[in-house]
Amino acid sequence: MPGTADPQFRQDVLAGLSAPIPAVPARWLYDLRGSELFDEITRLPSYYPTETETALLKQIMPELATAIPRGTAVVEFGAGSATKTPLLLEAIAPAAYVPVDISGDYLGSSADMLRERFPDLAIYPVAADFARPFELPGEVLDPPKLGFFPGSTIGNFVPRTATDLLRHFRDLLGTGSLLLIGMDRVKPIERLLAAYDEPEGVTASFNLNLLERINRELDGDIPVDAFRHEARWNDMLSRIEMHLVATSDVEFTVSGKPFAFKAGESIHTENSHKYPRRGARLLLLAGGWTPVAEWEDPAGDFSIVLAQA
Ligand code: AVI
Question: 258: pLDDT confidence band, cut at 50, 70 and 90?
């Protein structure tokens, strides 16, 4: 809806489309439609991270239950997944659960679902952008804390920002806290590309939805069908990149500002960094966390690391 758009969205899009290498921050992929499409992606056979991490979590829960002190409060960065979060809560029976998510609506519905399933658990949802400073509820300041950051979401941050984020988690949770984090591994390029550009076309719709969102919320007239989704492996930076590539010369306006793209020029919309085993450990160390245990699936596709502040 024009006029009601988030001013930060407008600023990021107008600046991003005019940049020498046009790019829009990936967080704007997740409006309601984008979140639904991402949910659909996690159920695709080619998108291995969700299934692999869930199976791995199931397998390591008995070990985690002994490694995590009794009376721990779990702080999840993100609203929580309907499958992964209950696995953790069931295994370690925490003193409290604090999901932190920017979308208050999504947070509310996932907290309601968990309250039904864990009626004795104290749940304190916090509606905040977990990447920016925020306060934990007073009730969870005393107990030891475990940060939970599954899904390889850390991979969507460039290493410098990822390090800042990990340091911010450390400051928030305090010295001696634990962090349980999912990190995707480097693997053959064909498998990586297949996970981000599959025949079903859901990831393409997820990416193209950004242009639809710009048209809807920022009064744009981008001809969406003049762009196509492309997933690229950037070997130097160890990451999958999502781009929207112009298929012909195209001109459009957003919030009254004109833009022109030549055929083949692209808008960079997301990075998904993949970490080799030692690279993952180094990133955590740079972020102020010492890895204390690490698990991976038999194929070495995905890892879960427990680290201490
Ligand atoms: C949310 N994040 C971890 C996903 C990823 O794999 O980087 C986002 C995604 N983009 C395309 N497919 C999935």
Answer: very high
- Look at residue 3 in the predicted model and tell me its pLDDT: 54
What band does 187 get if pLDDT is binned at 50, 70 and 90?
A: very high
For residue 27, give the nearest of 35, 18, 19, 17 by alpha carbon.
Answer: 35
Q: Which amino acid residue places its CA nearest to atom 3 of ligand 1?
A: 153
Smallest CA separation from ligand 1 atom 2, residue: 153
Q: Is the pLDDT of residue 81 over 90?
A: no
CA max distance for the chain: 61
pLDDT at position 1 over 80: no
Ligand 1 atom 9, closest CA:
38
Chain segment 98-108, per-residue pLDDT in tens: 999 987 777 88
* Cα 41 to ligand 1 centre (Å): 8
CA dist., res. 197 & res. 42, Å (int): 13
Pocket test for ligand 1, best of 196, 238, 240 (most atoms within 8 A of CB): 196
Count CB-CB contacts under 10 A for residue 222.
24
Report the residue among 53, 101, 207, 272 best suited for mutation to probe ligand 1: largest number of ligand atoms under 8 A from its CB: 272
Q: Which residues of 128-137 are buried (b: 16+ CB within 10 A; e: fewer)?
A: eebbeeeebe
Decide if 74 contacts 122 (C-beta within 8 A).
Answer: no
Beta bridge partner(s), residue 73? 96, 145
Alpha carbon distance, N-terminus to C-terminus of the chain = 44
The mean pLDDT of the chain is 95
- Report d(CA 209, CA 212) in Å as an integer: 5
Q: What are phi and psi of 271, to 5 degrees?
A: -120, 140
Ligand 1: atom nearest CA of 270 is 10
pTM of the model: 0.94
